[in-house]
Design brief:
Chain lengths: 329, 583
């Protein structure tokens, strides 16, 4: 296996083994378009995202180390204090219960807290309460959107400066946007709650996606530096070779980035239930996989496609074809 | 400094890195010994347990809040929280709009109400003043000798406001150790018994105050400046200037006329009749009680006394809040039990360790002995990050939150990526047929640019996240940025120098099959195979790129002497026309 992976790397490097990412771009673009469309449709059909309490406002109690996971006890504890309330009680992990209600007054909160303490046979400090005012969620959403816009804007400028070509910058951003939409779509599909932690994960995914693209594009730029005078390969082929040459690095990086995140997602979440770590790691887990794929299947082919109709490159492609035709004679 | 080869410079850089570590450890150690710091990073509320409230200040009649008003809001809340006897509270602003209050444990309802109440400032005349201590029960005025009102009070300074009950309350009041229990907001139409807190220069004082005469909202502006002497010369004492609006100007003129009479009447006894003072009251506590030395007709009193520049500014700021009744709306309140926080931290660290272990296994599997360089680099980066967090916890009061822990875990992957990019570059160079020593140098030259660019993206993301931070995002952004910086230091000062040194060892240099850098396994065709046999053109790896006229200039610039020699050699063995087209 190790041998084969090293050999795999060598063959990718020399071009002996090559996956044609660039030529089959139509398929990738169609898949991406469908994925993005679905990602927009899913939340619309489902009637929006499953927003966490931070965005809806309300009160939430978490009871850890419960003796019994009977939801009825929690409902009763709430009803004893606020008769008309419709609490949502869920067993979120091994022995942790979560009770969500509409907004409560201070006094009600404290009384329900006491009720829950006795109902589940836990001590006072094993019950946490969380109250979120209705305007807080709007604040969080607005800040997240501002952050998103600022980041995308700055990233575009940074890429344009670094690569000195707007076409690379544009391709990288398109790849990032595809990642963004599909990650959001998967999140909507999973029915996980959208919490501020998920938003953090989301913004981090964008940075990862761009980061990944920068590494691959760096290699592309190097390979195509003297394209105009080479007759060995066409521009598209050079781009494809660069993607293939960095494929081992892409896979390694993805693995290394995803392993710790997966550890949090599958180990931490199983034991702890919903919470900062789980929300964050789901967004990251999905985003890292999609981000890596988007670089290879979307950003690089798109860049090749954007440039291949440039007069110089068309001329160069003709030369390559000509030389190959001669060689076969 | 005699020789400068890659090996020597590598040793120098590694020594520098060692020095950085020693210095940081010494700084932290010094902090621990002096008792200000601890070896463990400080933990935020979500890990330690406690309550976090996010409050949105609201100013009457305007929807936006300026930065200055926000700072005032923080100052008000800090005063209230400190006054309520809660220890170790932290108060900060967030995203320029909110005030975040973090308290250990669960605050009482009283504390919460106190924090939320709107600031309330007004001016009341002083009726009586006394030393701050409560009068012992045995020496208090007996009931039959208590002052009794003889008529209805005619003005706010009238002693007829003092009822027996009020006087009893006045005697019992302790201003040395003021009680922290929340009192109902006072009635502006009734007299009030309250304290002026001690400062470093003046002791505390307790007062009986008359009803409110001028409201804080009537202050149109306040400032502080150096007091002008008789001929307009600037003295070196500071004063606070208030400007009242038109309505209050007339009112204030009346008040000062009355108070000034008390002052002139008492001049024979040294001019310290408390009735000549009017008290500025904020949240029912006296913040200053200046004496009326003149009748103020233009609504622009100046308060002078033993002010420093700082204390004059503080009073002037407080007067400005008076003009703005800020109230606070609780946006969110989170109470985390210490149990849950501890669980989350343990699991977060466990998940992080497992993730780290997986990365270690994977990189050993992928990179063999090179994997150990990755592990060592991660350990060094981890050490740097830990020291930075512990030192920042001490100097900047930075606290590690759950989101911060998540940021650290995510950073493992992004840190390891720098090494992966670098190693893959070295392998590429080996595949080109270079020897290990020059492959390391060349691979580094190319990897360096990529690493810098990609880290710039990371830092950019961290900065943006940090500045538009909401809720717990900030902790995450901070650790992400911190690790990006640590990673850069480690790649430049540890990983690369290590490889420069390792490249000269037999194990790596001769490409042992477990070194992860074995040329045979990488399918490289060495340039020189001993016994004078050079590579023939046909055996050239397919990737050697032509460096001809078009790119020559740039290539020249990017070539080291060694590379140039190699290129010349390549030309000697390459096709005689110097271009490398395969036909």
């Amino acid at each position: 296996m190790t041998t084969s992976f090293a050999t795999f790397g060598n063959e990718l490097y020399t071009g002996k083994r090559s996956y044609n990412f660039v030529d089959s771009k139509k398929i990738w673009f169609i898949i991406a378009a469908v994925a993005v469309a679905l990602s927009i449709l899913i939340p619309v059909l489902k009637g929006g995202f499953n927003l966490g309490i931070e965005f809806r406002g309300g009160s939430e109690f978490t009871v850890s180390n419960v003796k019994t996971t009977d939801a009825g006890l929690g409902e009763k504890a709430v009803h004893d204090v606020v008769s008309g309330a419709i609490p949502r009680v869920a067993n979120v992990a091994g022995n942790t219960m979560r009770i969500q209600t509409d907004q409560l007054t201070d006094d009600e909160t404290n009384r329900i807290k006491e009720g829950l303490t006795t109902a589940y046979g836990v001590t006072e400090n094993e019950v946490t309460s969380n109250f979120v005012g209705p305007t807080w969620g709007q604040d969080v959403t607005r800040q997240a959107l501002i952050g998103l816009a600022v980041f995308v804007g700055l990233a575009a400028v940074l890429m344009a400066l670094y690569f000195r070509t707007w076409k690379m910058s544009l391709s990288a951003l398109v790849g990032m946007l595809v990642t963004m939409f599909t990650t959001a779509g998967v999140y909507a599909l999973s029915d996980f709650e959208v919490t501020p932690s998920a938003i953090i994960g989301f913004l981090t995914v964008l940075s990862y996606s761009l980061y990944d693209t920068v590494v691959v594009f760096d290699k592309i730029r190097e390979n195509t530096a003297d394209i105009s005078t080479s007759t060995r390969r066409t521009f598209g082929e050079e781009v494809n070779l660069a993607v293939n040459q960095t494929l081992v690095r892409s896979i390694n990086t993805m693995m290394v980035a995803v392993l710790p995140v997966a550890a949090i997602l599958f180990i931490g979440a199983g034991l702890l239930g919903a919470g900062t770590l789980r929300d964050l790691s789901l967004a990251l887990f999905v985003g890292i996989l999609i981000g890596t794929a988007a670089t290879i299947f979307i950003a690089a082919p798109l860049y090749a496609w954007l440039r291949q109709s440039e007069p110089d490159l068309v001329k160069q492609a003709r030369k390559v074809a000509h030389r190959r035709a001669e060689a076969t004679v | 400094m005699a020789r400068t080869g890659p090996k020597n410079s590598a040793r120098r850089v590694l020594t520098w890195l060692g020095a950085i570590f020693v210095v940081l450890t010494a700084v932290l150690g010094g902090g621990v010994i002096s008792g200000h710091a601890s070896w463990a990073p400080k933990l935020a509320l979500d890990l330690e347990g406690g309550t976090q409230m996010i409050l949105a200040p609201r100013v009457e009649g305007s929807s936006e809040i300026s930065e200055e008003q926000l700072n005032q809001a923080v100052a008000i809340i800090r005063q209230r929280v400190d006054g309520s006897g809660v220890a170790e509270a932290e108060i900060s602003t967030q995203s320029g709009r909110n005030v975040v209050v973090s308290l250990p444990g669960t605050p009482s309802k009283e504390t919460r109400d106190l924090i939320q109440a709107s600031a309330d400032m007004n001016f009341r005349p002083v009726i009586a003043a006394a030393d701050p201590a409560a009068i012992p029960v045995e020496s208090r005025t007996p009931d039959d000798q208590l002052p009794k009102p003889t008529a209805d009070p005619t003005n706010a300074s009238d002693t007829n406001w003092v009822t027996p009950e009020l006087y009893k309350e006045f005697e019992a009041l302790d201003c040395v150790n003021p009680s922290t229990e929340k009192r109902e907001r006072s009635d502006p139409a009734k007299p009030l018994v309250t304290c002026e807190a001690a400062t470093d220069k003046t002791p505390a004082i307790k007062y009986i105050l008359g009803p409110v005469e001028v409201k804080g909202q009537d202050i149109s502006s306040s400032s502080f400046s150096q007091v002008q002497g008789a001929q307009g010369s600037v003295t070196n004492s500071w004063g606070v200037n208030i400007t009242f609006n038109a309505e209050a100007t007339a009112k204030f003129k009346e008040v000062t006329e009355r108070l000034n009479q008390f002052y002139t009447a008492s001049l024979a006894q040294g001019g310290n009749d408390p009735k000549a003072q009017f008290a500025i009251v904020l949240d029912d506590k006296v913040i200053s009680a200046p004496r009326s030395l003149a009748v103020i007709t233009d609504g622009k009193p100046q308060i002078t006394g033993n002010f420093t520049q700082a204390s004059a500014k503080a009073l002037s700021d407080q007067l400005r809040y008076g003009a703005l009744p800020i109230s606070f709306e609780i946006q969110s309140q989170e109470q985390i039990s210490a149990t849950l926080g501890g669980d989350q931290l343990r699991l977060g660290l466990l998940a992080g360790l497992i993730g780290l272990l997986l990365v270690v296994v994977y990189s050993l599997f992928q990179y063999r002995a090179l994997g150990f360089v990755t592990i060592a680099s991660l350990v060094v980066a981890g050490g740097l990050t830990y020291l930075a967090i512990a030192i920042l916890g001490w100097t900047e009061n930075y606290r590690l939150s759950l989101a911060g822990v998540a940021g650290l875990i995510v950073a493992i992957g992004q840190t390891a990526d720098s090494f992966i990019v670098y190693f893959e570059r070295i392998r590429d160079e080996l595949r080109e047929g270079r020897g290990l020593v020059s492959a390391v140098e060349n691979g580094w030259k190319r990897a360096k640019r990529t690493v810098l660019a990609s880290k710039a993206v990371n830092l950019l993301a961290a900065l943006v996240l940090y500045f538009v931070a909401v809720g717990n995002v900030r902790g995450f952004a901070f650790t992400l940025g911190l690790t990006a910086v640590a990673d850069l230091i480690v790649v430049f000062m540890f990983t690369h120098p290590m490889l420069q040194v390792l490249a000269r060892t037999r194990f790596f240099g001769e490409g042992h099959r477990f070194s992860g850098l074995s040329p045979d396994r990488l399918g490289a065709v060495p340039l020189y195979r001993g016994a004078g046999r050079l590579r023939t053109p046909t055996e050239k790896p397919a990737v050697v790129r032509a460096r001809n006229a078009g790119a020559a200039a740039e290539a020249e610039r990017r070539m080291t002497i060694a590379e140039r020699r190699l290129a010349e050699k390549g030309q000697l063995t390459g096709p005689s026309n110097g271009t490398k087209e395969e036909k």
